[in-house]
From TrEMBL:
Keyword Transferase included in the entry's annotation: no
Entries under CDD domains matching the protein: 17beta-HSD1_like_SDR_c (cd05356)
Gene Ontology cellular component terms for the protein in this record: endoplasmic reticulum
InterPro entries reported in the protein's UniProt record: NAD(P)-bd_dom_sf, SDR_fam, VLCFA-Steroid_DH
Keyword annotations from UniProtKB, A to Z: NADP, Oxidoreductase
Keyword Nucleus attached: no
GO molecular function: oxidoreductase activity
Pfam families named among the record's database cross-references: adh_short (PF00106)
Family: Belongs to the short-chain dehydrogenases/reductases (SDR) family.
Protein name: Very-long-chain 3-oxoacyl- reductase
Length: 309
């Protein structure tokens, strides 16, 4: 067999491989769309806990779970916003709410009071959504130590500790759902967002472990890896094909609970991730580094101009 024939064969096999992966993606999207949305969330327990529930994705999770008949325990650091969201949910969906004001950047000492606040509630759904990032991409040595601490405590510790507090009652009742809202940044290497990417990767792997440990006990685990959603945190104000508003995104993800234990949530995001996975790691890292460096330089320039004005 000549070199040209070998090259042609390898190319054909690779195209066949890509075609199979694309077919798998299409079938997965169809499967989760058609077979999803069958979970009766209210059957799992009377209450749902949602962290970071005063804005964006978290607020939308709280609203859409309330629309399914669950009472909602809202957790965030801003009391006024918590009260406003609680009032909105009670008025619109005629369910009960409870607010727990908490700053998840704190240490282990914040969790004993949270545990006491949750005593006696039949919690069927936990949404670990609260998250912390940086205003723009930066090298690790440029980040204030406090910011690194905040990202680790908010993204990692809150997920692990709240799950630890709530999952025993789910095990006792043999039912429950744990949804961990990680990030697409946790599925890929994202230079200049190292702590954020790393903490979100923890959430994804943590979810995988929970699934293996607790699926036999009737507990459903879902790891959600959103790409760009039009929220205050992302800084994207307008919705687009690849950047949905939170209501569309959460509506899509909730339909996948029980059908997809790990997903990018929204089918255009699944398509984006498919393309990203095709790139060699070194090329994706190089492209991301270049893109994030431009964002960093632009932010620093704007910050300098603002300081000088």
């Amino acid at each position: 067999m000549s070199f040209a024939q070998v090259t042609c064969l390898v190319g054909t096999l690779y195209v066949f491989y890509l075609s199979l992966k694309l077919l798998k993606l299409v079938l997965e999207v169809v499967r989760t769309t058609l077979l999803g949305g069958t979970i009766d969330f209210k059957r799992l327990g009377e209450w749902a806990v949602v962290t970071g529930s005063t804005d964006g994705i978290g607020k939308e999770y709280a609203k859409q779970l309330a629309a399914k008949g669950l009472n909602i325990i809202l957790m965030s650091r801003n009391k006024e916003k918590l009260e406003a969201v609680a009032s909105e949910i009670e008025s619109e969906y005629k369910v009960k709410t409870k607010i727990i004001q908490v700053d998840f950047s704190g240490g282990h000492e914040i969790y004993e009071p949270i545990g006491k606040e949750l005593e006696g509630f039949e919690i069927g759904v936990l949404v670990n959504n609260v998250g912390a990032s940086v205003p723009y991409p930066q090298h690790l040595h440029e980040l204030p130590i406090e910011n690194v601490w905040t990202q680790v405590n908010v993204n990692v510790m809150s997920t692990a500790m709240l799950t630890r507090l709530i999952i025993p009652s789910m095990v006792e009742r043999n039912k429950g759902v744990v949804i961990n809202v990680a990030s697409g940044a946790g599925a890929f290497v994202v230079p200049l967002l190292g702590p954020y990417s790393g903490t979100k990767a923890f959430m994804d792997k943590f979810s995988e472990s929970l699934h293996i440990e607790y699926a036999s006990k009737g507990i459903i685990t879902q790891s959600v890896l959103p790409l760009i959603v039009a929220t205050k945190m992302s800084g994207v104000k307008r919705s687009g094909f690849f950047s949905p508003f939170p209501d569309s995104f959460v509506g899509s993800v909730l339909k996948k609970v029980g059908a997809a234990r790990r997903c990018f949530g929204y089918w255009p995001h699944e398509l984006q991730a498919f393309v990203m996975y095709l790139l060699p790691d070194w090329l994706f890292a190089k492209m991301t580094m270049k893109f994030n460096t431009k964002l960093r330089d632009k932010a620093l320039k704007k910050k300098k101009e603002k300081k000088e004005s």
